[in-house]
């Protein structure tokens, strides 16, 4: 079981995953971003008939944070994923952000000057992993390398 903040984000990610548009992979992902004032911003994966255009849940959530002008305020993210069945979303193993999403998260991390906490959960199970983004994406290239956000 995760600490309180992590569990809140995992719960919000599970709620978000219900609205995943994932008719091709049938794999629903939910994300929930925690901002420094306690605001939680959700995201889901958003697939496309042209498969390669599909967007991951974490990317959708971070883009929504940016729309709100809050890219510098990202503290943590929770993600869950599982297979879509008639009865709901199933799966007990924690999922971790894909490589592209780690890079997207790094943009918010460097702009905000925080090492974002990443909570990785599942559709059904109780296990929640807790990682620093810097452990998931070591030696990252980011805005700092371009003189932005320093
Ligand atoms: N997916 C995410 O939303 N986030 C990840 O970090 C990994 C993968 C989505 C993309 C696609 O819609 C589905 O999961 C199966 O790959």
Helix-strand category: alpha+beta
Write the CATH homologous superfamily.
Answer: Cytidine Deaminase, domain 2
Distance between the termini: 36 Å
* CATH topology name: Cytidine Deaminase, domain 2
**Helical residue percent band:** 25-40%
Query: With helices defined by DSSP (H or I, 4 residues minimum), what is the helix count?
Result: 4
Kindly give the count of domains. Answer: 1
Mean pLDDT reading: 96
The SSE string, one letter per element, is HEEHEEHEEH
Number of strands: 6
Oligomer: single chain
Strand fraction band?
A: 15-25%
The hetero molecules present are: tetrahydrodeoxyuridine
What's the CATH class label? Alpha Beta
General shape: globular
Task: Tell me which CATH architecture applies here.
Answer: 3-Layer(aba) Sandwich
Low-confidence stretches: none
What's the story with the biggest beta sheet?
6 strands, mixed
Query: From the alpha-carbon coordinates, what is the Rg to the nearest angstrom?
Result: 15 Å
């Amino acid at each position: 079981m995760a600490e309180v903040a992590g569990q809140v984000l995992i719960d919000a990610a599970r709620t978000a995953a219900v609205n995943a548009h994932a008719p091709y992979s049938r794999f629903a992902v939910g994300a929930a971003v925690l901002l420094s004032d306690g605001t939680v911003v959700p995201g889901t994966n958003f697939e496309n008939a042209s498969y390669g255009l599909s967007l991951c849940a974490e990317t959708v959530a971070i883009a929504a944070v940016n729309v709100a002008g809050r890219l510098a305020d990202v503290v943590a993210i929770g993600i869950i994923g599982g297979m879509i069945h008639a009865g709901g979303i199933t799966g007990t193993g924690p999922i971790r952000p894909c490589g592209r999403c780690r890079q997207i998260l790094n943009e918010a991390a460097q702009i905000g000057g925080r090492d974002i906490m990443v909570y990785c959960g599942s559709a059904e199970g109780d296990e929640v992993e807790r990682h620093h983004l810097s452990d998931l994406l070591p030696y990252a290239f980011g805005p700092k390398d371009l003189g932005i956000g320093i």
